[in-house]
Amino acid sequence: MPAAAPAVYILHGDDDLAIAEFLARLTEKLGDPTTAQLNRLEVVGDQADFAAVEAACLAAPFLAPRRLVIVRPLGKFATPLSRLTGLLERVPSTTGLVLVEPKVLPKDAALLQWAAANPGRAYVRSFEPPRGGALLRWIHTRAEQLGGQIQPEAAALLAESVDGEARTASQELSKLLDYVDRARPVTTADVDLLTPAHGQADIFAMVDALGQRDGRQAMEHLHRLITDQEPRYIFAMVIRQFRLLILAREALDAGQSPRQSLRLAPFVADKIARQAVNFPLTRLEAIYHDLLDIDLASKRGQVDLEVALDTLVAGLAR
What we know:
Order of helices and strands: EHHEHEHEHEHHHHHHHHHHH
Oligomer: single chain
Low-confidence stretches: none
Structural class: alpha/beta
Mean pLDDT: 86
Radius of gyration: 20 Å
Strand content: 5-15%
Helix content: 55-70%
CATH architecture of the largest domain: 3-Layer(aba) Sandwich
CATH topology of the largest domain: Rossmann fold
């Protein structure tokens, strides 16, 4: 007899691609896509109405075996802890409550301690992106999963071009495999041709301009990006940049070196740390929440992503 599915999932870490794929698999298990969407609720922790989320967790699923309620990032939803754990202990087996924190939680975090004390109800997984040699192996495996191959030198160049970011590497790899029609392995020449480094440079330049409240320069860099890349790809890069800025700002505020927190190439970590100085942590967190709102709205077809990016950058530069 198969084991019962967990009632509570605690997903933490900064590998947003792996988290997104995990959530997609959970959604697939809801069954028919039409009814699955009726049984899937995703909210932003700081903006969530606790009572509404609680009611959604306790409600019976509609024409499906389970409901899925996702809260990310947790923010104020996790406080007070006693209120949250009270809900966690009452989530029925017909609901999967997924709590997503976009950074690795310390081992002594209260949520992890609760999960350890309730192993039958909780599933915990840490999502840390592959780095170094692990990233190279990941790129090769990903290429095979996508029906193609990539040469070792090309994989190393791709990893360097995307600053070790798995989500961006996956997007670029898909583009490269489409280019070679999966008829031959991707080469370094292909990566040089199709994965230009200026995209990341424009992201840095745009954030620099935002930090200086230079709206004209910020918009110029955004529009250059939009001319060269798909809006969804650019949006993923922007989300990544502000996630890194939050990590750097938290490290700076704690008197620590951002290099250790970011785990990127030293020169990249130093550039992000210099940018983080221009933003207080509260502002960075507010921007990140706005990005999550745009992400959800665009996936629901409520906003055009290119227009939303334009509006967001214009507002941030004021």
